[in-house]
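Q: For a teaching handout, I want to show students what a protein-ligand complex looks like in token form. Below are the inputs, and the small molecule is fe (ii) ion. Please produce the holo structure.
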Amino acid sequence: MRLQPLHRVVRFLRAGDESVDQGDLMWAVSQLRPEERPLFSAMSPADQAHSVRVARIVEEGRSDLDGPSDDPWIIRAALLHDVGKSCVPLGRTGRALGTVTAWVGAGPVLRGVVGPSSRLGRVAEYTRYPALGSALLRDAGSDPRVVAWAEEHHRPPAAWSVPADAGRLLASADDAA
Ligand SMILES: [Fe+2]
Ligand SMILES: [Fe+2]
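A: Here is the structure, written as tokens, with fe (ii) ion included.
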């Protein structure tokens, strides 16, 4: 079972002003395609740190997957799954509110009643971050599985287009990190 949104909010608020270790940052950049590096750089330090933790877990587990274990797509998917968060300028409280709003499915309703430039409008926009991230990655020419995982990573397994064993590894790493 996936981590519940309220647990995500608590974890997020506890994360503080985290930053990514320099060695981890260099490793992450080395895993990405040149077109993807500016997208990773635009992520907040806390999001970068989370994404590197996800990618390290995935790196350890990927030898058990079907297919060539040196295919870099899954590491890139781990590093960039939350990239859409960088599209919406919101503070910690707003992001926590956005997570809960997405959980209760109120994003579309909220987008219909508030202007996009208001704070509440940004909260509503934040609920779309998987689709926003997916669009960024598509424009950057990322592997279709990396594009898909950004959009699908909070959906149930039945709605994944990525290989099921890879999705399970990515999702469990996301919950653990
Ligand atoms: Fe996410
Ligand atoms: Fe995540």
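A: Two things your students might notice: Residues 5-176 form one domain. The two ends are 15 Å apart (CA to CA).
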